[in-house]
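[job 4471] stage=fold_predict status=RUNNING
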Amino acid sequence: MNRDDPWSRRRWLAGLAALAGGSACSTDRPSAPGSAEAGASAASTASAPATAPLPNATVAVDDPPPAPREMRGAWIATVANIDWPSRPGLAAAQQRAEALVLLDRAKALNLNLLVLQVRPAGDAIYPSTLEPWTEFLGGEQGRPPWLAGEAAWDPLAFWLREARARAIELHVWFNPYRARHSSAKSPLVAPHLGVRQPGLIRRYGDMQWMDPGEPAAAEHTLAVVTDLLRRYDVDGAHIDDYFYPYPEPLRGPGSPDRPFPDDASYARYTAGGGALAREDWRRANVDSLVQRMHAAVHEARPGTRFGISPFGLPRPDRRPPGIVGFSQYDQLYADVERWVEQGWFDYLVPQLYWPRDRAGQEFGTLLTHWQAEVAERGPAPRRHQWPGLFTSLVRRDPAAAYGLRVWPADEIVGQIQLMREQGTAGHIHFSMVALAQDRDGLATRLAADLYAAPALVPATPWLDARVPAAPQWQREGEALVIGIDETPAPVARWAVWRRIDGRWRFDVRPGAVRVLATEGADALVLSAVGRTGVEGPRVRMDLRVDLRVEQR
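[job 4471] inference complete, writing structure tokens
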């Protein structure tokens, strides 16, 4: 069969469909297994808790175990060029080359999620009619990210295509309220909200913010999110911890906090009959945006995960004994505990940015707390909880002494080990640059041990519980050509087990792949994985004798 001829492929798939019901096959005519029992089994496990990841997914048994599942992610911050690109104003080819370095490192580490910042401060890293190009790419706000004489390109489309080619999920990260970052150098330009509707913007310290109390500011943010999701087939949408701004002292250290300048919007609220105290009104503003964004994401692109990454300390009246420190409930007006109870997210990433031995903010205590919060107070089915890790504090200078802001790689390794011991099925690193630089040998250690084999992302069946069909295949030399009916559910990824030298080895391949190398295996087990991580029936092929296909 000509693999590049779509008509040949269609005829082959039609032939496979005609063979449905066969139980065995010759080397040139594979069967098309169809088992209602296996399909029902796959559906019944779709809502089960995530399978604990294997230390290294190679096992010496006749049949492979369930696919390992663990969210392994990293943020890629564009604001202030933290992760990408390395500086503003680079040629498009250089920006793409730097992106590929990060993508290849993520693949080599067996990461399965990248969270790309697409809206640093009321601007965009993709072409938009609602917000201008960010200066962190082009060098000036509104300037596209290519030099004179270069072809136009779409950075977000590029990231999405390259992540998919590596079987990595891409989630888009929005800052919901920030309008101008302190590191910005160029003036605001249209269509930035600060130019079109300057009355919605408030200066606070050395930054500018969209006033959360202005309904039109919230409407604009929701329009931006909806517009992106309708145009890009991303896997998730994500917001961080910047709601109302972190407080700044009025006159210097030790002085009272500078008040957020929302007198005008609060006055309009009370004049319209609003009765909430200002603090409760601020929380209600943030609650409303979170609730509406959760709904908007699912409406604009069904099956897309919505995640929130709040500050890691709980509200004061819900804290474990001994936990002290900043209250996002009282100062960022983020009532995360309410969002948990209402189920206004698909995954929560509390930023647990403290070491395991930090008195007052001990990592393990906070981990246990947020696990229980989501499990016991959230709705069923249980939402995901994948903590954020402060990997960027791992030392970059081998001569630097370890301390409060300089961590050894052992700290992050120990945190991941603790999460696995406690049953937490994932985590996200802030940020990718620390892994790309292999600070203190961390990336090398992860690749050799904790991330030695790939893992599937934990399933999110409450968004889409459809079970993919069982795959069918035909051998061509040392390759297997895959066919599948995608009517039940499109294929996002393939879960592949190969038995080599008596041991099963796990792999994850992109959903677009239709040819698999045998890689010297004498048996192979394959299943399709849908957009939300739901796994279809497994099909096993014995490659030693007669290519017998058996559905499991």
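[job 4471] summary: The CA atoms of residues 353 and 390 lie 5 Å apart.
[job 4471] exit 0
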